[in-house]
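stuck on whats below:

***
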Amino acid sequence: MTESSVASQSAITISLCMIVKNEEETIERCLRSAEQIADEIVIVDTGSTDKTKELVSQFTKDIFDFEWIDDFAAARNYAFSKATQEYILWLDADDVFLAEDRQLFLQLKSSLNRDIEVVSMLYNLSVDNYGKVISQLRRNRLVKREKNFRWIGAVHEYLEVGGKKLDTDIAVTHQPQDHDSDRNLKIYERRQQKGEVFSPRDLYYFANELKDHQLYNRAIEYYQKFLATKQGWVEDNIGACSKLADCFYYLNDVENQLKYIYLSFQYDTPRADFCCRLGFYHLNHNQLKQAIFWYKLATELDITNAAWGVVNHQCATWLPHLQLCVCYSRAGEYKLANDHNELAAKFIPDDPRIHHNREYLRQMLGSQ
């Protein structure tokens, strides 16, 4: 075996590049979960006043200061510029690799073909009380350094990539702590005051910040502006429809809530969360036939097609079955109600609603 062939089969090397500020509550947990993966850890601090740097220094000497200029992409690009290894991995301070995913990553590291320039991974946004993933999407997470891929966007930045790509089932899990919830909104508002013309993507994420701050009427305005550009990414278009439906729900405007649920179907085939929304609407209006239709459809959809957008696992697994149990029970179809309760139980076996339904349906079936 030649020296060159040995080199080609050796594990890739990885620089972990992060931007941080006042992350003392989470940074140690994050770095401990990734230290076996990274050959180099590069930390760019944008103005910490807590113990972040002290905690980081346990893991690396490569700590750099970056003057904050209201631009996340600029900070991330600076961090990437300090990397020296073959590949660059990025994380946020409140992200972790759980043990199973860390092992999967180490396997990938030892076997990755160096022709691969971009590796995407799943991103677990939230989990339920049982530790099961509720919502999830996919992000480009590991990139070849020599390609000089760049971050774009001052807020809610994204990594612009190209070339040969590998999609994996490795997951990064988001475990957030309280943060400066006004930070991003203030950045957008300062940019707006300067007269900056927002891109379609900026319109969408500015609307998200407004919605998160319960400024529903302003959020509606910017979601509608975003959709009117007709230049948005399809997943953001669908996301805007979902969030518009939320806004109108909070404003008790049922007509517009339904309008944007149905509008989402123009961008792609129905997603499970929209089907459950419609099922819920019809169930509340005691329209059992329509409710059953939409909840059943939610159980039949392939959620893998939406992997790059947010996937609501509850709406694609146990929730519609639990609601179908309610629908069929109200219709007096207790056998079908029991069947769907048991299907829901496969996903949430210890949920008290499952046990309550079993007791009730046992009584009803016994009386027939």
Notes: The longest helix spans residues 234-250.
